[in-house]
Amino acid sequence: MHAGRVIPAASASGKPSLPWRSTDAGIVIRFRLTPRSSRSAIDGRGETAEGPAILARVNAVPEDNAANMALTELVAAWLQCPKRDVALIGGAKSRIKNISVAGDPEGLARRLSERLAVLGSDDRNPGQRAR
Q: pTM for the complete prediction?
C-alpha cells in the first residue's frame, strides 16, 4: 500500500502488469476501444504503449461522446454493476480509455480476473467472445 492506494505489480519493464489499478473508491481500468464495430463486445486483453489494456469494441460512432457512453454501459453490463458506478475518467478523445468503477477494489479485481480468464480460455474467434 502506498498513500492509501494499492499499486499493481510491475513487469520487468517497470510498467504495470495488469490493465487495472486499485483506488480507495474502487478500481481504474485501462481499455483500448474500437468504435464503429458491427457489435459491442469485450475481446480480452492486449498491450498498448501505455501498458496492458482490456480490448473492447462498440458499435457506436466516436462522435458526441456516443462511443464513450457505449463503453461505460458495456463495462457495467460485463462487470454486472450499476451504470452509475462506471465513469470515463481519462481518454475522452483517445482510443485508450481509463474507466473508473466504484465499489470494493478486491471484489472488483477478482471479478475482472474471472471475466478475463473466461475470455482467455475461450476457443472462439475474438469477435465472438463477450457481449
A: 0.81
CA distance linking residue 70 with residue 4, whole number of Å: 31
Nearest to 20 by CA among 29, 11, 33, 31: 29
Side-chain half-sphere of 96: how many Cα atoms within 13 Å?
A: 11
Which domains occur in the chain, in start order? 20-121 (3.30.1200.10)
Residue 131 has pLDDT above 90, yes or no: no
Task: Report the pLDDT value the prediction gives residue 65, as an integer from 0 to 100.
Answer: 96
SS3 for 31-91 is EEEECCCCCCEEEEEEEECCEEEEEEECCCCCCCCHHHHHHHHHHHHHHCCCHHHEEEEEC
* pLDDT band for position 121 (cuts 50, 70, 90): low
* Confidence check: pLDDT of 130 > 60: no
List, in order, residues 6 or more apart from 92 with CB less than 8 Å away.
Answer: 65, 68
